[in-house]
Amino acid sequence: MTRLFFATLCALVFSLSAAIAQDNRAWIQIEALPSLLEAEDRVRDYAEFLPNVNGFAVGSGWYAVALGPYASRNAANGELRQLRARSRVPRDSFVVGAQSLQRQFWPVGADAQTAPPPVETSDLPDDQAAEAAAEAAPGAPEVPEETLAQARRSEAQMTGQEKRDLQVALQWAGFYNAAIDGAYGAGTRRAMAAWQEANGHEATSVMTTRQRAQALRQYNAVLEGMDLQQVTDSQAGIEMLLPLGVVAFEAHEAPFARYAATGDLPAQVLLISQAGDPRRLFGLYDILQTLEVVPLDGPRERRDDGFSITGRNDEIVSHTEVSLRDGEIKGFMLVWPAGDEDRRTRVLQEMSESFTRLAGVLPSDLGVDDSQSVDLLSGLQIRKPRVSRTGFFVAADGTVLTTLEAVDGCTRVTLDGTTEARVAATDTALGMALLTPQSALAPLEVAELASAAPRLQSEIAVAGFSYEGVLGAPSMTFGTLVDLRGLNGEDALDRVALSALPGDAGGPVMDRSGAVIGMLLPRDADGRRLPEEVSFAADASALEAAMRQAGVTARMAPGGAEMAPEDLTNKARGMAVLVSCWD
């Protein structure tokens, strides 16, 4: 008899263990509270804006608020990622198995053992998964509207984080502009009353549970369709939330992991990852601002250990955050269409707050293609000027003389690609412009204008950016002075014979002593097309007069012997500067 009882008991234990082992259902535990009363209140709060809300005892006098059931832990984890991304549940929520939950106290009369079949949502689109989860949810009673006294009591039970979250929602809605501190002072009360009035509620300055849920729903609604998901890029050593509803991974191309737009919303995300030091950090800061996806207008901040760049124009807004830590430069860039500030701000906030550094950086040669265009940086289009020409320094303060063609119709003019310059004066008849740098420059050489007429048939040289900056340094082009007048007898022009390219226009024309006898003009101007080796230069005496009228005193060459070719080249390259016109 004893053996029979023992065998029966073993069979029962085995059957129960097998049943538990076969129960693969999972739940998302979003909160635990030390009393049943508090737990019931929180369940009601969550049931206002979430489906599938349940309450369970979990032992030791604690009670849990949980979502589910889900068909498997994978399904629950997938749903948890979606809920976290939309800020619908606390970030410390986690997945538990059915065996972790005991007596069910909510909804009243429900029993986890006889719950409807769990819904597997991980393989369904988001909208279908939400519908399926809602249909499978036990019928939870609607949270009744509270009286003012009840609202005060429920507010008193809010955690500090919940209070701060509500302040954030009120701030986003435009009703609150003070500190996010969880302290409900006069400013927060005024914001609550303003929100209540704007949303058709009595302005009591104390929001009810239902009203708080409504404000949070409004705050989070802007993220619908963004599908914010935690992405771990082990190669880049970065983990963060990304809006996978609008972008998808495209390629690794050091130092970027690129995420391109997948639909009508032209968004982009770049994860930035490379080894480096402060010098390389500052170099990256400069390089990023040459990209077309980083518009020039907007605030910039550079620190010893990082930088941020916000650029905006009529089409896009981009924001970049980068930091240097332990020899690793990491960060991200979000590019978003202009005019969609609500969604951009929320997505950027979620990305920034979730950004986590992991070990490792992208190898410097990852994805590098030897055939890549010089117009691209790691697959991204580099911003290019509309036109680039040559200029030369005519004063120690960095004043530059150049061709009028180099600045005509520009919204922005730069010297050597980085220094902003202002057009100080122009002379249409001569086709020249004087530029003043917006920041201090110290020229290596300043032009000295020839004080006497140059000798006909003498050898001349022009320093110019023949290929419009592609080579990074000016080239020397040699030729001959043919005439001291233009084709129609113009005294202000010299005719020269040399093979010039468009980028050479604006460059200094020098004799063998290093004196500047003129400024090279564009070859094909006013609809004319000259023979290949025919060019014109604005005469030095005419340039000096125009500079004097603009308040700039030209340096005059003292005259002297011919210079060695290498000395002449060094002098020319020291005074020549790349002038770029930007739209």
Explain this structure.
The protein is 26% helix and 30% strand. A 7-stranded antiparallel beta sheet has the order 8-9-10-14-13-12-11, sandwiched between helices. The protein is built from 12 helices and 31 strands. Helix 6 (160-172) crosses helix 8 (209-221). The protein is elongated. It is an alpha+beta fold and 583 residues long. The N and C termini lie far apart (98 Å).
Low-confidence parts lasting 5 or more residues at pLDDT below 50?
1-22, 113-141, 370-376
Radius of gyration: 36 Å
In terms of DSSP E residues, the strand content is 25-35%
The average pLDDT score comes to 84
Q: Which bin fits the share of residues in helices?
A: 25-40%
| SS summary, helix count | 12
Number of strands: 31
Oligomer: single chain
Strand order of the largest sheet: 8-9-10-14-13-12-11
- The global form is elongated
Major sheet size, sense and barrel closure: 7 strands, antiparallel
Class by helix and strand content? alpha+beta
Q: What attributes characterize this protein structure?
A:
single chain; 583 residues; alpha+beta; seven-stranded antiparallel beta sheet; 12 helices; 30% strand
Blueprint of the fold:
Layout: H1 2-22, E1 26-33, H2 36-47, E2 53-59, E3 62-70, H3 73-85, E4 94-97, E5 104-106, H4 126-136, H5 148-156, H6 160-172, H7 186-198, H8 209-221, E6 228-233, E7 238-243, E8 247-253, E9 256-261, E10 268-275, H9 278-288, E11 300-303, E12 306-312, E13 316-325, E14 328-337, H10 341-354, E15 356-357, E16 376-377, E17 380-381, E18 387-393, E19 400-403, E20 412-415, E21 419-427, E22 432-437, E23 448-449, E24 459-464, E25 475-483, E26 493-497, E27 508-510, E28 516-520, E29 534-539, H11 540-549, E30 555-556, H12 565-575, E31 576-582
Parallel strand pairs: 23-30
Antiparallel strand pairs: 1-3, 1-4, 2-3, 2-5, 6-7, 7-15, 8-9, 9-10, 10-14, 11-12, 12-13, 13-14, 16-17, 18-19, 18-31, 19-22, 20-21, 20-31, 21-22, 24-25, 24-27, 25-26, 26-29, 27-28, 28-29
Helix pairs in contact: 6-8
